[in-house]
């Protein structure tokens, strides 16, 4: 029984270290903060407070292990500069200046820690220094069993039990904790490394010795002699002294290590692709890198992994470089940057562009890769274009040929035509070896930007005549240019776009060609084909395309096309994504056609927008429903001819013909203004706005003596004569009016 108990105790001691749980740490970068997520046991307790270099995060379970390897894969070292285990169960986080921490438990087992810019809130509970852990209870040695003098020397312990009885009552030192020993060993290594780099000076604790006799003392060299001993060292090419501290500073040791905004720049050594290749044979370069991947113990050598990754990047093998980084879990400082370089080489854009935050204005090679990281260069960012072009010119020829058109497109999209031209020139300097269809596309886009449309069309014709892989992009560029210029694409170009889109279906370029073909058919006025293709390809959920088509239909489509889409087409599809302006345009056209109820259904679900188009359409709907007062409310504050016409209609519906005539005149509709003024006997308005017959009658009506005749007073002879003459003129005007009415 005793043997079994001892065996159980030994097994428990052996298995105790294996029960330690590893805490996974995930990271993510945001605009205002960096986030760390700790996956801890559900019942784990934690405390966050200030430490020597930042913050300390203490967990209740001192036996937890932490996976720090992938923390800096997705976040830069801008807010969090270092992370590690300070002691068992305690994580130390070194942070930059003016950065504070906030922590909360998202749910049991998920601890979130955010490192935010700026000072901490005044009442933050995480700014207090973290108290030292409670001291362990003192070790109390078991007291030996009291034995009577009568029993001393008489009872002999069992041989089995006797082996485990202490022979000496003095306390025995506990075995050292392996974790403490590991930490002590690592600390000694770090201290030794720092001392070898000159960062630390060992304290002189040697006792003083008497000076040697004068005759045995060697003369000490003076400062001049010491300088002479080192003179010429830098001029010897076979001797180069560089420490890891020097490599860590990189170009930041000079004044060129920061961007225009003061952000630290990545070292140029991270992007020295030309030196990594050195015009060597690709097979030999890869073989050398693969040979250095493992050390003599068949363990992954980080330096060898870096060499292989650099070889793949220099050759343009992005997927292979990423595979090496992911397989060996390379976590050296440049690994995260190299992973994004590999994505740029393969996909033309970085997977995590935020890795290059603050690098666009760097005067180093980092500016080149930062400009390639985003699909479009951020408009609010300052770009060191000289550094970009300088870094691009240093690339190997095959990478210049591959990345040149992509980089030129970035600059063209941002409006930097001259920079795009310089990139094009840097590619073209190598001659015909770099002449590709993609480069010709860039040249055509540059011509279009400069207004040289004929030269651009000639370049597109050259690409299409060759029939190379750049043909789809050339067709897309031609249709885009024609649509932007207000031209109608020819049917042959649209048929070619549809054929190339089918060849490249389920790709971004194929989808782009389909959308351009749909827009081309709409520009031709063939709305039936355009909306048919929209539904066939399931693009009615693309808001921009569907909305542009509906607005073009409302503006240029025939009545039959408009009614078809309104009662059995896209306007009846529940999944159709249409902007409010597109629906308002369709409703306005339906009101013109006299379909007010259907127009109301089209805009029934729109929330109030407050824009002029909405107020005009809703005013028209109110007039059609017989609510002129509501229509006038919608038109309040609008000062446009369209609004005045609707005000006139509303006033006419209320029976106020004088006000209606006024608003017709304000809108420029003098015919309606004169017609209502005639009915209201507003002769002054008829005289100024009416047709010739009515205008002349109104003038005579106002100037004839009959207008001022007072029957109560006997007229003079001259007055009577004028009255008779005016009556004759009046009869002539009336005959003209009656004759004109008869012809109508």
The geometry reads as: elongated
Describe the strand arrangement of the main beta sheet, using strand numbers.
5-1-2-9-8
Q: Work out the helicity level.
A: 40-55%
Biggest sheet: strands, sense, closure? 5 strands, mixed
- Beta fraction: 5-15%
Q: Structural class, from helix and strand content?
A: alpha+beta
* CA(first)-CA(last) distance: 128 Å
**In terms of per-residue confidence, which ranges show pLDDT below 50 for 5 or more consecutive residues?**
1-19, 160-165, 220-238, 246-256
Quickly count the helices.
Answer: 32
Mean of residue pLDDT values: 78
How many whole angstroms does the radius of gyration measure?
Answer: 44 Å
Number of strands: 9
Index terms:
744 residues; Immunoglobulin-like; five-stranded mixed β-sheet; four-stranded antiparallel β-sheet; 32 helices; 50% helix
Topology, element by element:
Layout lengths: L1 H14 L6 E8 L3 E7 L6 E5 L3 E6 L5 E3 L12 E8 L2 E6 L3 E9 L2 E8 L41 H4 L15 H19 L26 H8 L13 H6 L23 H5 L4 H10 L10 H14 L2 H10 L7 H13 L18 H8 L11 H9 L3 H17 L3 H12 L8 H13 L3 H14 L4 H14 L6 H13 L4 H16 L3 H10 L6 H14 L2 H10 L11 H13 L3 H7 L9 H13 L3 H7 L6 H14 L2 H11 L2 H10 L3 H7 L2 H12 L13 H27 L1
Parallel strand pairs: 1-5
Antiparallel strand pairs: 1-2, 2-9, 3-4, 4-7, 6-7, 8-9
């Amino acid at each position: 029984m005793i043997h079994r108990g001892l065996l159980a105790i030994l097994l428990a001691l052996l298995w105790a270290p294996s029960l330690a749980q590893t805490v996974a740490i995930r990271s993510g970068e945001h605009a205002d903060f960096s986030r760390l997520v700790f996956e801890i046991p559900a019942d784990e307790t934690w405390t966050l407070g200030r430490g020597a270099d930042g913050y300390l995060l203490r967990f209740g379970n001192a036996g937890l292990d932490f996976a720090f390897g992938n923390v800096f894969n997705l976040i830069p070292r801008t807010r969090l500069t270092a992370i590690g285990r300070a002691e068992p169960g305690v994580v130390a986080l070194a942070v930059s200046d003016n950065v504070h921490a906030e922590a909360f438990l998202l749910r049991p087992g998920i601890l979130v820690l955010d490192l935010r810019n700026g000072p901490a809130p005044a009442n933050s509970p995480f700014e207090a220094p973290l108290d030292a852990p409670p001291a362990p209870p003192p070790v109390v040695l078991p007291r030996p069993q009291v034995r009577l003098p009568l029993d001393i020397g008489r009872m002999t312990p069992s041989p089995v039990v006797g082996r485990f009885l202490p022979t000496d009552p003095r306390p025995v030192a506990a075995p050292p904790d392996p974790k403490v020993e590991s930490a002590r060993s690592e600390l000694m290594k770090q201290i030794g490394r720092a001392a070898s780099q000159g960062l630390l000076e060992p304290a002189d604790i040697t006792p003083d010795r008497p000076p040697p006799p004068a005759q045995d003392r060697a003369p000490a060299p003076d400062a001049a002699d010491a300088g002479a001993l080192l003179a010429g060292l830098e001029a010897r090419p076979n001797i180069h002294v560089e420490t890891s501290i020097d490599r860590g500073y990189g170009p930041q040791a000079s004044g060129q290590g920061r961007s225009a905004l003061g952000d630290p720049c990545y070292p140029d050594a991270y992007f020295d692709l030309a030196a990594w290749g050195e015009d060597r044979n690709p097979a030999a370069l890869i073989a050398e890198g693969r040979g250095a991947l493992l050390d003599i113990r068949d363990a992954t050598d980080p330096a060898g992994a870096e060499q292989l990754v650099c070889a793949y990047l220099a050759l343009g093998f992005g997927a292979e470089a990423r595979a090496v980084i992911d397989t060996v879990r390379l976590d050296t400082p440049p690994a995260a940057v190299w992973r994004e370089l590999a994505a740029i080489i393969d996909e033309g854009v970085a997977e995590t562009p935020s890795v290059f935050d603050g690098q666009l204005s760097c005067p180093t090679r980092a500016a080149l890769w930062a400009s390639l990281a985003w699909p479009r260069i951020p408009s609010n960012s300052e770009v060191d274009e000289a550094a970009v072009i300088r870094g691009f010119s240093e690339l190997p020829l095959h990478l210049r040929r591959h990345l040149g058109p992509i980089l030129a497109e970035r600059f063209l999209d941002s409006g930097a035509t001259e920079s795009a031209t310089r990139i094009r020139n840097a590619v073209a300097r190598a001659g015909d070896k770099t002449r590709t269809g993609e480069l010709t596309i860039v040249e055509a886009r540059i011509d279009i930007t400069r207004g040289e449309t004929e030269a651009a069309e000639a370049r597109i014709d050259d690409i299409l005549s060759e029939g190379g892989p750049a043909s789809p992009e050339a067709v897309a560029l031609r249709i885009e240019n024609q649509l932007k210029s207000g031209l109608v694409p020819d049917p042959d170009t649209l048929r070619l776009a549809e054929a190339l889109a089918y060849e490249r279906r389920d790709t971004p370029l194929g989808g782009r060609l389909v959308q351009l073909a749909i827009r081309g058919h709409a520009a031709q006025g063939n709305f039936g084909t355009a909306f048919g293709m929209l539904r066939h390809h399931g693009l009615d959920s693309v808001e921009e395309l569907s909305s542009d088509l509906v607005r073009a239909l409302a503006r240029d489509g025939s009545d039959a096309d408009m009614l078809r889409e309104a009662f059995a087409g896209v306007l009846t599809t529940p999944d159709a994504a249409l902007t409010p302006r597109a629906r308002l345009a369709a409703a306005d056209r339906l009101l013109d056609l006299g379909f007010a109820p259907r127009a109301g259904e089209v805009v029934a679900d729109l929330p109030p927008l407050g824009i002029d188009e909405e107020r005009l359409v809703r005013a028209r709907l109110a007039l059609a429903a017989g609510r002129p007062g509501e229509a006038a409310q919608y038109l309040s504050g609008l000062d446009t001819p369209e609004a005045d016409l609707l005000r006139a209609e509303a006033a006419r519906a209320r029976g106020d013909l004088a006000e209606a005539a006024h608003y017709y005149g304000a809108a420029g509709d003098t015919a309606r203004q004169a017609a209502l003024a005639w009915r209201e006997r507003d002769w002054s308005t008829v005289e100024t706005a009416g047709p010739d017959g009515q205008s002349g009658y109104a003038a005579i009506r106002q100037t004839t003596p009959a207008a001022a005749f007072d029957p109560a007073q006997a007229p003079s002879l001259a007055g009577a004569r004028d009255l008779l003459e005016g009556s004759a003129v009046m009869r002539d005007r009336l005959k003209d009016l009656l004759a004109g009415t008869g012809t109508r």
